[in-house]
Amino acid sequence: MECQIQQPSLPSPAAARAPSRRPPQQLGHVVATRPPSPPDGLSPEGPDLAGATTPTVKARRCPHRSSLRERESLATAVPAAARLAGQLLELKGNIRVFYRVRPLLPNESGAVAYPKSGENLGRGIELTHNGQMYFFTFDKVFEQSTSQEDVFIEISHLVQSALDGYKVCIFAYGQTGSGKTYTMMGNPELHDQKGLIPRSLEQIFQTSQALISQGWKYKMQASMLEIYNEAICDLLATNHTTIQDGGASKYSIKHDANGNTHVSDLIIVDVLSINEVSSLLKRAAQSRSVGRTQMNEESSRSHCVFTLRIFGVNEGTDQQVQGVLNLIDLAGSERLNKSGATGDRLKETQAINKSLSCLSDVIFSIAKKEEHVPFRNSKLTYLLQPCLGGDSKTLMFVNLSPEVSSTGESICSLRFAARVNSCEIGIPRRQTQVRSLAQG
Ligand SMILES: Nc1ncnc2c1ncn2[C@@H]1O[C@H](COP(=O)(O)OP(=O)(O)OP(=O)(O)O)[C@@H](O)[C@H]1O
């Protein structure tokens, strides 16, 4: 069940520290239902970054060699190791899991350690709880000192693949105050503190500009919503209405046959530059439901979903791609007795915990390969259905607080993450086609 966990009731600290004997390739399930498509940049029919070459030349030369070379020059921002990790990620059909531990705050004492060598270096974490040692391994661990930039480098290849026509979904999960918002958004104004969302968007715009010389033209559309107390709220709307406000016909979620999600009445903005997206992010951040709790001065009380739809066409080859980038900052899980929530905070906390528990039910159901997966039990799970049960490239960040009193919650988060990591959601599928003459 907890495939990446060495049992909690370990006999001795020495045994607890013994490295896992599981060979690295078993850490994720390789889905072998059909041969995996070659990693980005290796696809002969590639509308990807590499495939964006002059069509006549491309048709005559070895696509593999040219693709790789061109990608090398285009994606200079993505170091080779991270690209390789991304390609591996793509070959597996699982939801990948990275975890990040936030630094200790003043007056906190830590209960987290990491393997210093061996096969679990960079992937393992040890927690001590009530005198027992717990050991987990996942795809990647970011220790307290890891910078925002280093975290982004590890996911930049995944982000890039949205331009190739993939659906990409990255979400942050974890206890309240563990660093989800810092990881996803951070402070977009300060270079060192910029989170994954602003960095991803910068990269997408830079790369799309670089591809103009190879015949590619991209159109981008952004939307941003939050799910607060089980109601959807449009963060780009100037005048907020939710279903609870009486806008009953508003914001219903639908998925089309290609697994694309549509939320009725949601404002979708054409964005032409990174500056335009930045001001949208600023607007949305001001609208987000934030409150003070005992656990976090500025706690996000909602799940926040940023979506960038990417439409690309190559004027030379008539190839079209349609990618989606979903970046999601979930509300934090919290124990009611620890958070001290009352009144509105209590209601919010209950709604957050209920939707996270629905997420957990969905994950359990997918992991057990059950016929019926209860996606419709909450707005969050229904919205995430294509990311959790479809053909998208999905990555979950588990954010952890290193603080002693948080270890119980951290262990729950890590157990949940192990389930998520074991979910096989299928090989990611690229949305691409050749433009017909009729389309112009
Ligand atoms: N990697 C980090 N480096 C520096 N500070 C961090 C880091 N991660 C989190 N913090 C700080 O810790 C505090 C809590 O982080 P954050 O608000 O991101 O948590 P959260 O998980 O989003 O919480 P909630 O679920 O309540 O919204 C913030 O003050 C944030 O700036």
From TrEMBL:
What the entry lists under Pfam families is as follows: Kinesin
Q: What are the residue boundaries of the Kinesin motor domain, all occurrences included? A: 94-423
For this protein, the record's SMART domains field holds: KISc
Q: Where is the composition biased (Low complexity)?
A: 1-27
Q: Which residues bind ATP?
A: G174, Q175, T176, G177, S178, G179, K180, T181
Q: What InterPro entries does this protein's entry cite?
A: Kinesin-like_fam, Kinesin_motor_CS, Kinesin_motor_dom, Kinesin_motor_dom_sf, P-loop_NTPase
Which GO CC annotations does the UniProt entry carry?
A: microtubule
The answer to whether UniProt assigns keyword Nucleotide-binding to this entry is yes
Which GO biological process entries does UniProt record here?
microtubule-based movement
Which keywords fit this entry according to its UniProt record?
Answer: ATP-binding, Microtubule, Motor protein, Nucleotide-binding
The keyword Cytoplasm belongs to this UniProt entry's keyword annotation? no
Where does the sequence pass through the membrane?
Answer: none
Q: Which domain of life is it from?
A: Eukaryota
Task: Note down the stretches annotated as region Disordered.
Answer: 1-73
In the record, what terms sit under GO molecular function?
Answer: ATP binding; microtubule binding; microtubule motor activity
Which family does the record claim for this protein? Belongs to the TRAFAC class myosin-kinesin ATPase superfamily. Kinesin family. KIN-14 subfamily.
Q: Specify the protein name.
A: Kinesin-like protein
What organism is the protein native to? Oryza sativa subsp. indica (Rice)
